[in-house]
Amino acid sequence: MDLLTLLHVFSVAFVGLTKGNSPLPAGPLNAAVGGNVLFKTKLDPTPLQSIIWGFGTVGTIITSTSTEDTITPGYEGRLTVNTSTGSLELRNVSTDDSGIYTVTIIPQTGRVLTGTTTLNVQVPVSNVKINTSSTDLMEFSSVRLSCSSSGSTPSFHWFNDSSEVTADRVQITDGGSTMTIVSVTRYDQGPFMCFVSNLVSNGTSDPVTFTISYGPENVTLQVSPPQKYHPEGSDVTLSCSAVSEPTVEFTWLFNGVPQSGKGAEFRLMNIQMNHSGSYSCEAFNSKTMRNETSQPLLISVLKNISDVSVTSSTALPVEGQSLNLTCDASGSVFTKEWMKDGSNLISTDNIMFYDNNTVLSFKNLRRKDNGRYTCRVISPISNDSFTYVMDVNYGPENIKINGPNKIYVGKTLKLSCSAESTPTATYTWKHNGKVIHHSSEYTKDSVELSDSGEYICEATNSVTEKTDSNMRRLEVTRWKCGPGCIAGIVFGCLAIILLVAALVLAIVKKKYLMEKFSKGTSNRTEGEGQDNTAYGGSQELNYADVRFFRNRNGGNVELGQQNEVSEYAAVRVNNKPPATSSPPTYNAHMERVKRPAPQPDYDGPQYAQVRRN
């Protein structure tokens, strides 16, 4: 036995003593077939005397000193030792290289170091595949997936998309290579993948996706426009939908009878009353061979309300009688409402409704029942109304006669008659039982004593056929003058006499004032050279306004409206000494002032206004 072998045996013998100072890290090491593996020590580079590596039952596979390497046959070209750290590289490994490796390192100084580690050499994972009997499944069926691969000691994991499969409905068998989905649902479509791994590699299969047939279910029927009632002549579209894979075929039913058409829509154009009924759709899945029918949908086709009318049981309503108002209409009638003057009517002791509000009945008409009665006919798609105007006929009653009870011979007699009545009553006048006039008013000029007696006014209502009357007694007498009358005549005559006397006095007084006025004027001339300055001097022009005279009793006597026309007289200023002259008379004065005044050669004429009242 050579020296190196002895040293290796010695080191192995004392391995227990140096185990605590193993130069190798904790193992094991894993390598793939055909790959390289490095057994790296924990030592820093340092001069070493010798390095010995051994493998399992083979023993020493390489001994390395500072001068040479000794390699066991079969390992030539596959081993390399780092002489400064003791690390070993093993190349092109195979599964036969799996096992326990030992190392003995003898430094130039110090104690001997020994260590062991394990190498696992495995075939890499490859060719990962999923096998299944079918990818076209029915909901609630079962499916089995098998995963196969190449490689050493594979480990299997299953994924649905990116999530690992752990559902209760899944069974994993055959070391994980087989997955069974029990009671497949529509959510188990995948994609499913198989992940295979070992110590040295891993691989994933191509995804597998299932087509899962299910349904039909949740079959739903809708109508457009979305309403229960539809006007006659309109268009209606029915739409059917279902949850299903693959897409279903639809069959339409009207009152349970199949109709033509297989699409998801069923159109009703220009619908009529005979289209009213129950509609439903049936969905059929040719894959699952299942079918399901929707809930029935009721379509009601209605006619618009038209031709509303209200008729009365009698043409002329009379107070105290009964009356029925009947409301009729064409179209689809649902309800009828009655209103009076815009307010809803309700049943009372006197008002009743019959035949679903078709008839409005009055038990006993009253005049307060006058008004506008409206019947409103209503349906879900339209409404219309009609108004009937009721005038309750009544009377005559409360006959009243207006006129005198007593009148004098020769006077005019006027009598008028009135009555409460609808329509207006006709009137007849009777005098002492004899018809004398046909009108509400009776007039007679210059009555006589024979016109005394009973005057009767008869009022007749042509509708109610009622007559009522009232009587007025008239007394015609001659006129007589008593003591009071005579006294009145005397006083009247005296008043007239006093009035005449006052009038005469007023005229005399007026004439007097006029003459006085004429004397007060001065410096007036007609151009003949007459000078009146002797009577003028510095006297002022006076005006008199005579309109009223007071009589002896203190009363005023009005003369009436007087002429207020103003007249003007020319006054010539004469500076010559006054000549003796007498004043003109009133009449002469009036004649002069009416003539045009002469124009002087000096300062010009001056005028004074004289108002005659």
**Strand fraction:** 35-45%
- Shape call: elongated
The termini sit apart by 192 Å
> With helices defined by DSSP (H or I, 4 residues minimum), what is the helix count?
3
Domains counted in the coordinates: how many?
Answer: 6
User: What strand line-up does the widest sheet have?
Assistant: 1-9-8-3-4-5
Mean pLDDT: 83
Helix content: under 10%
**Number of beta strands:** 47
Summarize, please:
The chain folds into 6 domains: 3-122, Immunoglobulins (Immunoglobulin-like); 126-209, Immunoglobulins (Immunoglobulin-like); 213-302, Immunoglobulin-like (Sandwich), CATH 2.60.40.10; 306-390, Immunoglobulin-like; 394-477, Immunoglobulin-like; 486-611, no CATH class.
Topology:
Blueprint: H1 3-13, E1 29-32, E2 37-39, E3 48-55, E4 59-65, E5 69-71, E6 79-81, E7 88-90, E8 99-107, E9 113-122, E10 126-132, E11 136-138, E12 143-150, E13 155-160, E14 163-164, E15 170-173, E16 178-181, E17 192-197, E18 202-204, E19 211-224, E20 229-231, E21 236-245, E22 249-254, E23 257-259, E24 265-268, E25 277-285, E26 290-293, E27 297-302, E28 306-312, E29 323-330, E30 335-340, E31 343-344, E32 351-354, E33 359-362, E34 371-378, E35 383-390, E36 394-402, E37 406-408, E38 413-422, E39 426-431, E40 434-437, E41 441-444, E42 453-461, E43 466-477, H2 483-519, E44 548-550, E45 556-558, E46 566-571, H3 586-593, E47 606-611
Parallel strand pairs: 1-9, 11-19, 20-27, 37-43
Antiparallel strand pairs: 2-7, 3-4, 3-8, 4-5, 6-7, 8-9, 10-12, 12-16, 13-14, 13-17, 15-16, 17-18, 19-21, 21-24, 22-23, 22-25, 25-26, 25-27, 28-29, 29-33, 30-31, 30-34, 32-33, 34-35, 36-38, 38-41, 39-40, 39-42, 42-43, 44-45, 46-47
